[in-house]
Amino acid sequence: MRASQDDFENAMNQVKLLKKDPGNEVKLKLYALYKQATEGPCNMPKPGVFDFINKAKWDAWNALGSLPKETARQNYVDLVSSLSSSSESSSQGKPGADREQQEYENLVVTSEDGITKIMFNRPTRKNAISTQMYQEIMLALKAASKDDSTITVVTGNGDYYSSGNDLANFTDIPPGGVEEKAKQSAIMLRDFVDTFIDFPKPLIAVVNGPAVGISVTTLGLFDAVYASDKATFHTPFSHLGLSPEGCASYTFPKIMGPAKATEMLIFGKKLTAREACAQGLVTEVFPDSTFQKEVWTRLKAYSKLPQNSMRISKQVIRKIEKEKLHAVNAEECSVLQKRWLSDECMNATMNFLSKRSKL
Ligand SMILES: CCCCC/C=C/C(=O)SCCNC(=O)CCNC(=O)[C@H](O)C(C)(C)COP(=O)(O)OP(=O)(O)OC[C@H]1O[C@@H](n2cnc3c(N)ncnc32)[C@H](O)[C@@H]1OP(=O)(O)O
Question: Where is the ACB domain positioned along the sequence (predicted)?
Fold first, then answer.
């Protein structure tokens, strides 16, 4: 089977996750295959002999001759896949060695061009948010709030932005029983949402695919939301015996009006990206084929705007709401603490985990 554009884009993301530097030779090969796959045969003038780096790159690309774009794309995907598996097996052979370098298990966090990017990285679980991942997201946001970047971006690796709360979180019951679990979860959720409410810089969501549950509700706390036209927005709280969180009980009616918010938050209506944009939850929708390119070009331009001015403007825009949002968050968490103990919620969770239901 030929590698699709999605496979190619996933492979490009995978390269950033490699735990071990693959070495210059492999990096040149990756560069050449990438150029061939995206631009076709080498079309650049040959760099001078003393321009060592660009000449090495040119040589590698030129050596691919007239290799078809599709074959280059496939070879790129295959090469990344072989690198990913060998880097995984070598890290398994040296427990702890690579762990120190990788700060987060479920996120990839990078800082470049004035932008800190926090990428959910559990693609095989559709980026479902495990208990550990909630903690990591809070840590990453707190670090981003203090780093040199001007804006912070949250996105997902793979085909989903995030499928929301990992429903297996509720299977890890502490010695205090389910009541204790519900209490701990409510505390964690409150801290988690508070971190978004208090985030001091422009916070942008790059919604690369479907979003579910808490990954949708928290969008109301972002400053801009850019979505691929493949993204959908789904808050199936009633189906799960739950109630809204992420301050959506306040932000959604405010953003889209109470009637539209009811359809989403009570009846679980799933919105397309264009519908979510028409309702004001999404800032702008892009065709999936050009999504990453268009959004990152724009974000790079925004990131060059004066840092202090952007911070202060955000403060002015949000200040009036902060106290209200914290109160809403506290109330939602207290309601959910009881909901998690309800038969409706427990049955829905068990049905999903025993594979009897899906959204
Ligand atoms: C503690 C604080 C709580 C805060 C309150 C938050 C509330 C919410 O976020 S409510 C929303 C919760 N999310 C869901 O109910 C989504 C459940 N998932 C699904 O319905 C489906 O997985 C899907 C529609 C998201 C994707 O379907 P499909 O494309 O068919 O992919 P798979 O189901 O095969 O998914 C692959 C793999 O990942 C597992 N998985 C996906 N999402 C979750 C999840 N949210 N929780 C746990 N596991 C998830 C899925 O079970 C598959 O696993 P395997 O079968 O073992 O491969």
Answer: 4-89
Determine which of 4-18, 200-214, 216-230, 290-304 has the lowest per-residue pLDDT on average: 4-18
| CA of residue 213 to ligand 1 center, whole Å | 10
Question: Where are the domains positioned within the chain?
Answer: 5-84, 112-324
The top-level CATH class assigned to 5-84 is mainly alpha
Contact 136, 106 (CB under 8 A): yes
Q: Name which of 181, 112, 177 is nearest 149 in CA terms.
A: 112
CA nearest ligand 1 atom 25, residue: 163
Strands 211-212 and 271-272, by their bridges, are: unpaired
Q: Mean pLDDT throughout 260-280?
A: 98
Q: Could you read off the pLDDT of 174-230 as tens digits, one per residue?
A: 889 999 999 999 999 999 999 999 999 999 999 999 999 999 999 999 999 999 999
∠ CA 204-289-286, nearest 5°, is: 40
Quick check: pTM over 0.90?
Answer: no
**Residues lining ligand 1, judged by CB closer than 6 Å?**
125-126, 128, 163-169, 185, 188-189, 212-214, 240, 245, 352, 358-359
Which tokens hold the place of 139? 């840590």
CATH code, residues 112-324: 3.90.226.10
**Tens of pLDDT, residues 25-54:** 788 889 999 999 999 999 989 887 667 677
Distance of CA 107 from the midpoint of ligand 1 (Å):
17
Q: How far is CA 119 from the centre of its chain?
A: 4
Closest CA relative to residue 253, chosen from 162, 241, 244, 284: 244
CA torsion through residues 68, 73, 76, 81, sign: negative
Q: Residue 86: pLDDT band by 50, 70, 90 thresholds?
A: low
Closest C-alpha to ligand 1, atom 2: 189
Residue nearest to atom 55 of ligand 1 (CA): 355
Give ipTM to 2 decimals: 0.99
Average pLDDT of the chain, as a whole number = 91
Strands (DSSP E) along the chain, which ranges?
107-112, 115-120, 151-156, 203-207, 211-212, 224-228, 232-234, 271-272, 284-286
